[in-house]
Design brief:
This protein is mainly α. The protein folds into 2 domains: about 1-60; about 65-270, no CATH class. It has 9 helices and no strands. The chain has helices at about 1-55, 60-70, 75-100, 105-120, 120-130, 135-145, 150-170, 170-205, 210-270. Helix 5 (about 120-130) packs antiparallel against helix 6.
């Protein structure tokens, strides 16, 4: 009897041990499966995020701008775009003119002095006639008055230099007008959008985000559009002003050198 009880006890212990081992194996396999599924989810998540990012990035810049243009209201946004178009047209025209007006003054002075020593005033005038830019035009006016004395040459150079400077600054006031006008139009759209939002609240008798979202969105988009246009035109305007200052400085330095050359030439002819 005791042997039978001992045998049953041993069998029970072995059965319990086998159950524990089986439970641990099942648990380990479950943990492994869960870990594998988690890893798969983690690997899939970045791919999903990448797909979403690609979908967002897949939208072209033109489509995004068009969408914001419609959200801001075609009326005010159209006026802001017109200000940008006219301002860019004038700025590009000025930039081209200023670049064409740039002259290598050192080379021009060397050519004028060489022509003056070899062929006289007429040869120097021909060199200026064949050279583009305001500096060559000023030189031509000074050489044309060289027969009336150095004082008259100096007065002619100064007077004609002022004329050339005013021609270089032509239409810059229009660019500054569009720089000031664009953000003002944006702010006007902002005010009208806010008025529309408060009118919607008044009509509904309740403050709801869905009521005011459209008006506030329009207000902010028109403001951003006007500020962007103003910043673009401001950069181009500053470039034109810096270019004009550079050309005027070259004109003044070259004119002084021309007067010195003519003074030396007149003394050599005596």
């Amino acid at each position: 009897m005791k042997r039978l009880l001992a045998l049953l006890t041993i069998v029970g212990m072995l059965s319990m041990a086998s159950n524990v081992i089986y439970a641990e194996e099942v648990q380990d396999s479950t943990v492994t499966e869960v870990a594998a599924q988690t890893a798969a989810v983690e690997e899939t998540a970045p791919a999903t995020e990448e797909v979403a990012d690609d979908a967002i990035e897949g939208q072209s810049l033109h489509a995004a701008i068009k969408q914001k243009f419609i959200e801001g209201g075609p009326g005010f946004m159209g006026v802001v775009v017109l200000a940008l178009i006219f301002g860019l047209a004038i700025a590009i025209e000025r930039i081209l003119i200023l670049n064409f007006s740039t002259t290598n003054t050192k080379k021009l002075l060397a050519n004028v002095e060489e022509a003056l020593n070899s062929g006289g005033i007429e040869a120097a005038k021909e060199v200026c006639r064949n050279t583009r830019g305001p500096v060559a035009s000023i030189f031509y006016q000074g050489l044309d008055r060289s027969g009336e004395g150095i004082d008259m040459v100096e007065k002619s150079v100064v007077a004609y230099g002022g004329v050339q400077a005013s021609l270089l600054e032509k239409n810059l006031s229009w660019i500054s007008l569009f720089i000031a006008l664009a953000p003002m139009l944006g702010f006007l759209g902002t005010v009208i959008g806010m008025i529309a939002a408060f009118d919607a609240i008044k009509a509904a008798g309740d403050i709801s985000p869905s009521l005011v979202a459209g008006g506030i969105s329009q207000a902010l988009i028109t403001t951003v559009g006007g500020l962007i246009v103003a910043m673009i035109l401001q950069v181009l305007y500053n470039y034109c002003v810096a270019k004009i200052d550079s050309i005027i400085n070259e004109m003044e330095d070259a004119s002084i050198t021309l007067i010195d050359i003519l003074t030396k030439y007149s003394h050599s002819q005596k």
